[in-house]
Design a protein that fits this description.
One of its GO terms (cellular component) is cytoplasm. It catalyses: D-arabinose 5-phosphate + phosphoenolpyruvate + H2O = 3-deoxy-alpha-D-manno-2-octulosonate-8-phosphate + phosphate. By secondary structure, the chain is an alpha/beta fold. It has a single domain, classed as Alpha-Beta Barrel (TIM Barrel). Helix content is about 35%, strand content about 20%. It has helices spanning about 20-40, 65-80, 90-95, 115-120, 140-150, 175-180, 210-220, 250-260; strands spanning about 10-15, 45, 85, 100-105, 125-130, 155-160, 160, 170, 185-190, 195, 205, 225-230, 245. α4 links the parallel β4 and β5. The two termini are about 25 Å apart.
């Protein structure tokens, strides 16, 4: 995507885990747009219109597909930034493509051939999150499914590898492996710190380590960073344990830009 991936700086994909309402989405987008403009960081607003992968049946899943997607489009139009959201089934691809510029394939679904084909056929950028169970080299096959479907606009996102039952680790060697296939590589700095499969049914996380993961990613030359942010993560309806408090974002990005400039 020209203007995002072809800049000297890394690009940022950021926003709330889920669209909880128009006011929160607009407030978060306005703040991130101001910060990224100041630091000359290309920006993509992220917000899930529906959360399909939930630990418990009573977990928050969304405010309604069409309502959330309209908010997503409104954010893009108001602030002049590309937007992205995740899709979970073949029939969602065309629907989401009417509102978003980039379609995100969830990590657990990265091998789902029909979903990759459906996303590719929309002509939108397809961002494939690497499964927690997948080697970096296996991602070339997911990428090829999109290319073979007539769409060469593919990104890959690293978001950690399952380590035991309740933790994830990031193998930074995998970034270079995935870059060798010619696609921009994004590092997910918040989901990489999840602690899944908790007995409570609520995923845990280590947000204090977001800066550590992000600094390492920029140092090894990742093209983009992904993170979820919220004014008050503790009150967020989804992924409360993982998101970066929005008031910490500018300081973090300022440090990361300096690292980028140094290398």
């Amino acid at each position: 995507m020209k203007g995002i991936t072809d800049q000297a700086n890394f690009f940022l994909v950021a926003g709330p885990c889920a669209i909880e309402g128009e006011d929160m989405a607009m407030r978060i987008a306005e703040r991130v747009v101001a910060i990224t403009a100041k630091l000359d960081i290309p920006y993509v607003f992220k917000g899930s219109y529906r959360k399909a992968n939930r630990s418990r049946i009573d977990s928050f899943s969304g405010i309604g597909d069409e309502k959330a997607l309209k908010i997503l489009r409104k954010v893009g139009e108001r602030f002049g930034v590309p937007t992205t959201t995740d899709i979970h089934a073949d029939e969602e691809a065309a629907m989401a493509a009417e509102y978003a510029d980039i379609l995100q394939i969830p990590a657990f679904l990265c091998r789902q051939t029909s979903l990759l084909v459906a996303a590719a056929e929309t002509g939108k950028v397809v961002n494939i999150k690497k499964g927690q169970f997948l080697s970096p080299s296996a991602m070339q096959h997911a990428q090829q499914k999109v290319i073979d479907s007539g769409n060469d606009q593919v990104w890959m996102t690293e978001r950690g590898v399952t380590f035991g039952y309740t933790d994830l680790v990031v193998d930074f060697r995998g970034i270079h492996t995935m870059q060798s296939y010619g696609a921009p590589v994004v590092l997910d700095c918040t989901h990489s710190l999840q602690q899944p499969n908790q007995s409570s049914g609520v995923t845990g996380g280590r947000p204090a380590m977001i800066e550590t993961i992000a600094r390492a990613g920029v140092a090894v030359g990742v093209e983009g960073l992904f993170l979820e942010t919220h004014f008050n993560p503790a009150e967020a309806k989804s992924d409360a344990a993982n998101m970066l408090p929005l008031d910490q974002l500018e300081d973090l990005l300022t440090k990361l830009v300096r690292i980028r400039q140094a290398i």
